[in-house]
Structure formats: structure tokens, C-alpha cells
Design brief:
Layout: H1 21-35, H2 40-57, H3 62-67, H4 73-86, E1 92-96, E2 99-102, H5 103-129, H6 132-143, H7 153-183, H8 193-224, H9 243-265
Antiparallel strand pairs: 1-2
Length: about 270
């Protein structure tokens, strides 16, 4: 559990770390839109190259990026099994007794897996190179124009920031509960299906109790400090876009246009 990377800030001295959080959020959104454009293999190659360059510029290792995908491996495997049963088009590739795996099931599963992997890596780069407070400020600044129509920009930004901040905290809490349960003889790996379900329940119940307790403590601490989300707030740190931010936005916008062009041609 300690090897999970998603949601953790890495204090490194890189080009991406120095960028404005607003530009990084916009780059992430442009790349997310590009991922869902049906641009085929060429589109995914362009996006993957851009993500690889961002990974190198942020000084994050490939191992760190792959660690962020670990929680999704079971979901990807489950998705593959479901597609093998649900998709019955294309050429039959593999016969497993009464079950026939078709080519479309393989290709569509690969497309979905590649999309998920790139989305996770993009999100990991954003959270690993941006401090939670800077991320909150960036989201709030981007949503500021929507306050004219009643959108609570600061509240939304604060909720997103707290959610991201709680990811590593819950991971550490899960590891602590697992160690405590293992010391009491609970086996989370071996045993029958019923025993495994009971072992998981013995992990989930205290985890939920601990999560609600931490949320209650955070709410009490914010209330004790007089926090009011509706009041006008001043900022010590003022965000300022640089040439590097504009270059990153232009490059990500070019990736989006390239994917749209490839999708139109296909």
C-alpha cells in the first residue's frame, strides 16, 4: 500500500514543478479530451509521446508512474473478462471450451486499458508536481468566472483539494489497519471465499470509521479557526503565467488538434 503513488506530491526541482497550476490543469483537461477522441493508434501514439515528455521533464521515474497504475490492475483484468463475454463481433481468436474470444473484444479492451493508463499517468504527473494548496488555488482561479452564475468556485476547489490530500492518508491508514489485523491472526491472502470476505470486512469497517473520524476532526479544526468559505479571501501567493506555461498549453492544444484531424480522416 505504501507504494501507491497517485495523489502524492513529490518535492523535486523540475520544469513541470515550476509551471503555473492553472496551465497544468488546462493541459490535463486538453489531454483528457484528446484521449477520448477516436483517433486510432496514431492518436494514442501522439498523446503517449507528449505524456512521456512531460514525465521526463517532471523528473518522475517510469517506475513511479507504473506504481500509480497498481490499484487499477484488477479493474482492467475484470474489464477484459467482461468484454470477452459481452463482445461477440470480429474474428474468433481463442476457443476456451464453450467460450470464444473474438478479435473486437481484444482490441476494444486494449483501447480502454491504454486510455485508463494514460489518464492515470497524466493525473499522477499533475498531483506529483503540484502542491495541494497550489492545486486548490489553480482550480479556484479557473472557476472564478463561473461565480457570476452562482457556482461556488472556492468550495469546489477546497473539496477537490481535500479529496486528493486524503488519498495518501487513507492508504497509510489502510496499511496500519492491515498490520493490526495481521497481528491478531487475520489472514487477508489465504483461506476460503467466506474467510476472505470476512477478512475484507474486518478491514473496511475500521477504515470507514477512521475516515469519518478524520473528516469530523478536519471539520472541527476548520470551524475552530473561523473558516468561512463565503468570505472574501486574500492570497499571499499570486499566480503568474510564464512563457513556459504558454508553450505547454500550445503543445497540448496542438495534440488535441492532431487527434481531431486524425479522427476526421479515419
Amino acid at each position: 500500500m505504501n507504494n501507491i503513488a497517485l495523489g502524492r506530491y513529490m518535492p523535486l526541482d523540475s520544469v513541470v514543478h515550476k509551471m503555473d497550476p492553472r496551465s497544468k490543469i488546462c493541459i490535463m483537461l486538453l489531454l483528457m479530451i484528446s484521449i477520448f477522441i477516436p483517433a486510432g493508434v496514431f492518436g494514442y501514439v501522439i498523446i503517449a509521446c507528449f505524456v512521456a515528455v512531460c514525465l521526463v521533464l517532471s523528473k518522475l521515474s517510469i517506475q513511479y508512474a507504473f506504481r500509480s497504475m497498481k490499484p487499477m490492475m484488477w479493474m482492467m483484468a475484470f474489464l477484459f473478462v467482461i468484454n470477452c463475454f459481452a463482445i461477440r463481433t470480429g474474428k474468433p481468436w481463442v476457443h476456451l471450451g464453450p467460450i470464444t474470444v473474438y478479435s473486437d473484444a481484444i482490441t476494444q479492451t486494449l483501447y480502454i486499458v491504454v486510455r485508463l493508463m494514460m489518464m492515470i499517468v497524466i493525473t499522477t504527473i499533475l498531483t506529483a508536481t503540484t502542491k495541494p494548496l497550489d492545486l486548490t488555488l489553480g482550480i479556484e482561479k479557473l472557476l472564478k468566472p463561473f461565480e457570476k452564475i452562482g457556482l461556488p468556485a472556492h468550495i469546489i476547489a477546497m473539496m477537490i483539494s481535500i479529496a486528493l490530500r486524503f488519498i495518501p492518508t487513507l492508504i497509510e491508514e489502510t496499511q496500519r489497519i492491515m498490520n493490526a489485523q495481521a497481528s491478531r491472526g487475520v489472514d487477508l491472502e489465504n483461506g476460503t471465499l467466506r474467510e476472505k470476505v470476512m477478512a475484507i470486512l474486518s478491514l473496511i469497517v475500521p477504515l470507514f470509521v477512521s475516515a469519518f473520524d478524520r473528516a469530523d476532526q478536519l471539520a472541527n479544526a476548520m470551524e475552530a479557526r473561523g473558516y468561512d468559505p463565503n468570505k472574501e479571501r486574500t492570497r499571499y501567493k499570486v499566480l503568474k503565467m510564464t512563457m513556459l506555461d504558454y508553450v505547454g498549453l500550445a503543445a497540448s492544444f496542438f495534440v488535441l488538434l492532431a487527434c481531431i484531424g486524425i479522427g476526421v480522416l479515419l
